[in-house]
Amino acid sequence: MPKNKTHSGTKKRIKVSGSGKLLREKAGKRHLLEKKSSEHTRRLAGQTEIAPQDDKRVRRMLGI
């Protein structure tokens, strides 16, 4: 039986924490930052957990 392949796009975007949580970067901090307020860009910094609705699907894509 062949092995399942990990989804390449997902493995580049999502990190698994030590406790097993799935972490992602927040969207909207790549470009057009001049017009966004400093408060807004600070809020977009750091990582956040994947939504519970997406957890099962993303884990399947990562082969976890």
UniProtKB/TrEMBL annotation:
Protein name: Large ribosomal subunit protein bL35
Keywords: Ribonucleoprotein, Ribosomal protein
A Pfam family per the record: Ribosomal_L35p
GN (gene name): rpmI
Compositional bias per record (Basic residues), positions renumbered to this chain: 1-15
Presence of the UniProt keyword Ribosomal protein in the record: yes
Lineage, broadest ranks: Bacteria, Bacillati, Actinomycetota, Actinomycetes, Pseudonocardiales
SUPFAM superfamilies, per the entry: L35p-like
InterPro entries: Ribosomal_bL35, Ribosomal_bL35-like, Ribosomal_bL35_sf
Species for this entry: Actinomycetospora aeridis
Record's GO cellular component terms: ribosome
